[in-house]
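Quick question, first post here. What does this chain look like in 3D?
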Amino acid sequence: MDSSVFEVILIGDSGNIARYKPDPVLSLLTAHLQTPNPSAVIFLGDNVYPHGLPEKGDRLREDAELVLKKHHEAVQDYTGKVIFISGNHDWNKGKDDGFDYVVRQEKYLEKLFGGTNIYLPSNGCPGPKEVSINDNFTIVAINTQWWIQRGFRPIGTKDGCAANSEEDFFVLLEEILERNKNKKVLVIGHYPIYSYSLHGGKFKLKHHLFPLTIYKKKAFVPMPLFGSLLPLYRKYVGAPEDLSNQRFRELKNRLKVLFGNHPNLVYAAGHEHNLQHIYKNKVNYIVSGAASKSTYVRSGKYGKFALAAKGFFKLKFSSTQKTIAESWIVDEENANGKLVYQTELD
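> Answer (accepted):
Ran it through. Tokens below.
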């Protein structure tokens, strides 16, 4: 064991895992939990497709419970730290009653895990939630879906939240980052800041000619000329779940400024169903949302790595060396998967 190294597995968008047979990515995850180093597993949101955890009696309730139980089974013998954050699907895809869904999921997961507070930020709050791991490393959880959520959104001490306003959220985050300026910091949220995939407005010719393939891979309904309107809308205006959405733009623009003042920071997200490493303005951005789906991604100006394949990222934070980022994907011939990317983070 190297006590100076702390490993973090980042696994996002796991809500569509196999229900009635071994899931390949969860099996890969279980294989990587057997590390001699202190470690953590972070589920980066969209933990249950398609609508999070409905109330009892709903036709989707039994299936949703099964998905969450599969997550618990995958890590039940693991002695490291487990963290879940929420994504747009966990908030009932942003519908007005999404808060009820996310709080219901939090309570259900914490019951599965013996009452441990593993769902961050708690109570559907925006965050930020600081988790000090050791003298050299801190995790900070933020709730990106809160910013674009319709309906009730908790805020302030009356709702059990640390931030009393949107502006207060940024003040608290800056205080956390300043307090940890001599440590390595991992900020986690469901939505990426940058992406060379669909939610980032990156499409290929097929999506312009057959725009319905954005949502279903085999929906080859030709819509020449008119079909380009959807990709262009997603790129410049944005559906609620896109990075170009006005509310999310406001959040990410503020985050980029804060992150740029802290060179030891890594921001990790899911949402896009692929694996990406982007380095821009001296900040490392990881996208690891390929637990149960894989979708189109391309290379980009600031992209160090991009792959559409099922798998996850692993980060190794060292007190004496640079942080190592690895990307592992499912390999049918090897239970430990295939290492497809490895780099030292600047």
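Residues 327 and 341 are 5 Å apart (CA to CA).
Residues 61-75 form the longest helix (15 residues).
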